[in-house]
Specification:
With about 260 residues, the protein is of the alpha+beta class. It is about 30% helix and about 30% strand. The strands form 5 sheets. Strands 3-4-5-6-7-8-9 form a 7-stranded mixed β-sheet, sandwiched between helices. A hairpin with a 2-residue loop joins strand 8 and strand 9. The termini are far apart. The relative contact order is 0.14.
Length: about 260
Amino acid sequence: MSDRLDRIVSAALRAGAAIMTIYDGCIEAETKSDGSPVTQADRLAEAILLEALGADFPDIPVIAEEEAAAGRIPDVGERFFLVDPLDGTREFIGRNGEFTVNVGLIEAGAPRLGVIYAPCLGRVFAADGASCWQGEVLDGAIVERRAMRVRAAPAEPVTVASRSHATPETARWLTRHAIRHVACRGSSLKFCLLAAGEADLYPRFGRTMEWDIAAGHAILQGAGGLVTTPEGEPLRYGKRDQHFANGDFIAVGDPALLTLLR
């Protein structure tokens, strides 16, 4: 594991530990101006990540979800971090365990590094271009680490879809492509399941933000998968003119699936 990736994984583990102190107690939620929920855990985890990234990588600006919600967005160039300190806040509030800590590094508009930690599940996923792996976490430490690779597309691919953000467009897409096996999951875990060879497709029709998907995109890419627009174009990052919002996308494990879906 590279020193850079090691430092980011360590920060994500600390943020996840802080989240769990609140998850195990009383969760109080507020509603942001965009209608999405936010909790003390979101803010606490973000503070930990901002401090860690600022100390270890002072020359790389960070765009973080709660800072962005407050209007504090730094100027960014070719390289910057995207941070979602608690992806799946609705899952966190509902206590179903499907929430994650996400840190992605963007270079020249593309994801180059990603770390996702699911503290309730004890799983961490990471990729930096040179390696892609998942690990089991016990008492805040990684006790097992193994390489990840997407699987070859089966005859009937398994699709993962959003648990909290289902849309009619997604349902129509699934029907049009005769997808029969669909599992609903929260947060960026959907990317991780594709990267780990536990699922094959993740179609998303509806608004997401760059910090929601950057880490997952990097990890899936590192495992041999792809994320594209429905038209097959690359998904780009740093869209300040769009307030860092994404359009629709299709994530696949085996890239051969893209040909079959057209």
